[in-house]
Design the sequence.
């Protein structure tokens, strides 16, 4: 995890800039460790964020084609095109 990235501030879901920063942070971590496979609960501990926030960010990255979800275990991994 990079130290220059801001931590989750607990702001409302409508905080567009905060959400973009979180998506960029998650994406960056997966780029640095392409074999990484995390559940929302694991990401919650790693990024010090609520699990529901991690799940929403993961889902946005899945929708963008960046990540895929492994149905067995509920882990999110780098999407293979």
Sequence:
């Amino acid at each position: 995890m990079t130290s220059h990235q801001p931590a989750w501030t607990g702001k409302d879901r409508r905080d567009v800039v905060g959400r973009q920063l979180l998506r960029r942070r998650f994406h960056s971590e997966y780029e640095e460790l392409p074999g990484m496979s995390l559940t929302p609960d694991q990401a919650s501990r790693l990024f010090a964020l609520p699990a529901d926030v991690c799940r929403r960010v993961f889902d946005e990255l899945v929708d963008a084609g960046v990540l895929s979800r492994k149905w067995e275990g509920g882990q999110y991994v780098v999407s293979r095109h």
Observations:
- Residues 16-32 form the longest helix (17 residues).
- The mean pLDDT is 84.
- Strands lie at 67-70, 75-78.
